Amino acid sequence: MPSRCIAAFCSNTREDGVSLFRFPKEPELLSKWVREVRRTRELWKPSPTSVLCSEHFELHCFDFVPVLKESLGYSVQHKRVLLPTAVPTVFPSGRLYKMVFIRLLAPIKNFNKYYIYYLIKLFSV
């Protein structure tokens, strides 16, 4: 079974064309990552296999040397490399999620919770 992004309403895998990143081992950086994830998943705790996808990081969080090397014809193992101090900050707003859920989707039987994620993306643009 492939690893999936643990962010709320995101289930990206490598097959979706994103990079997956394990949570850092350094305690201070780990607590920052966990705090950001808990903006949308209140009581969540990381496991050794927890990963976040590249969609939850802003562009300035990545080292672009691998992309440059690839554009010059060099073989590159990892196209997206996180900077050592990178912190995920791109998550759907919890407030917007609750509004969409309560007003639009809660009354619908058999709705897919991932629809909320896509609706939030649509309204956030």
TrEMBL record:
Q: Which residues form the THAP-type domain?
A: 1-91
Q: Name one Pfam family in it.
A: THAP
InterPro entries given in the database record: THAP_domain_protein, THAP_Znf
Q: Which domain of life is it from?
A: Eukaryota
Keywords, in A-Z order? DNA-binding, Metal-binding, Zinc, Zinc-finger
**Where do the TM regions start and end?**
none
The terms under GO molecular function for this entry are:
DNA binding; zinc ion binding
Q: Which PANTHER family match?
A: AGAP005574-PA, THAP DOMAIN-CONTAINING PROTEIN 8
Query: Which named protein is this?
Result: THAP-type domain-containing protein
- Source species: Xiphophorus couchianus
